[in-house]
Amino acid sequence: MQLYNKLSAKERAELIEKAGKDRLTLSFYQYAKIENPHTFRDQLFIAWDALDVLGRIYVAHEGINAQLSLPADRFNAFKTHLDSISFLKDIRLNIAVEQDNMSFLKLKVKVRDKIVADGLNDNTFDVTNKGRHVDAVQFNELIEDENTILVDMRNHYESEIGHFKNARRPDVDTFRESLPIIENDLKAHKDDKKLVMYCTGGIRCEKASAYFKHKGFKNVFQLEGGIIEYTRQVNESKIENNFLGKNFVFDERRSERITDDVIACCHQCGEPADTHENCANDACHLLFIQCEKCKAEMDGCCSTTCKEIHSLPYEEQKALRKGQGNSNDIFKKGRADHLPYKKDLRNIFETLNTDSIKG
Ligand SMILES: [Zn+2]
Ligand SMILES: [Zn+2]
User: Residue ranges of the Rhodanese domain (predicted)?
Assistant: First the structure.
């Protein structure tokens, strides 16, 4: 039995195209004690490969974090399989707001130390002592409250293209980095303010809320199911939508449009834009925001240097890359000094802090 991908992304894309069937993109997570993550990983791969599931799934002793797509007509079989696993029975599935058959092109089930890289020593606090879950209606009420501090638990390149009105957005590259920064920033308000947090699908807030409670914050709330579930509830129940712009997602779609507001700008010319691109120079691959005009002018590259390299014959590009490390880890980047219009979110964060905490 082969427990890895047999097809390249390109071959997979062609197959999906040919099948002509609608696929469903969804995500879920669960904290649970998994004794043997390697065995569990293999079982999932076999069962899900047979159902034509594609996606990125992390398994650890602490649980599972899954983002995936599957043929819509296999959904019931998939759900039956989930229900056969004790800690995944009746789990809430976050269904993508914008569907795209090509959201994932491989099935990767990986064993990790953690399902979210938090850099925390689990023995120091109780992860099950988490904040209060709130739905969209309760969340809307909470953020109207002048005693609320609303914090975006995502990274700078995520909140840059979309976020809730009046949210603090720490200028961080990683979740791990954000925890001590936020704690330090808000430490004077552990008793008197309501700390309300949100992230993409809710998983980061599960950890963060437990962390902040452990650090002495008395009133901690988290948006259940994150922006994805909030949007679903807003659309279904026709309630007020306080989110602006796009929801950044970690698959081929890059983002889901939630509202028509374009709140970011092209990192090259400063015009309104909110589409992330990876620099077309494979040796760079920087994640940045680029408008259509700059994309055409720069051949999808982030700098003139990259444009020159990208225009070379493939063999020459390869020769230039020889001996250089793999820089394709796109989500660790998203910052570069040569991009004049990358907004400095750190300043926004500080200004908001002083303003609204006074209020
Ligand atoms: Zn531009
Ligand atoms: Zn580049």
Answer: 144-239
199 catalytic? Reply is yes
Distance 289 CA to ligand 2 centre (A): 12
Q: Which of 199, 279, 284, 301 is catalytic?
A: 199
With cut-offs at 50, 70 and 90, classify the pLDDT of residue 247: very high
Secondary structure (3-state) at 319: helix
Cα dihedral sign, 139-143-147-148: positive
pLDDT tens for each residue of 110-143: 999 999 888 887 677 777 888 999 999 999 999 9
CA of 55 to the centre of ligand 1 (A): 32
- Ligand 2 geometric centre to CA of 292 (Å): 16
- List, as one string, the DSSP characters of 152-188: E-S-HHHHTTEEETT-B----SSHHHHHHHHHHHHGG
**Residue 27: helix, strand or coil by DSSP?**
strand
Task: Give the ligand with the smallest distance to the CA of 268.
Answer: 1
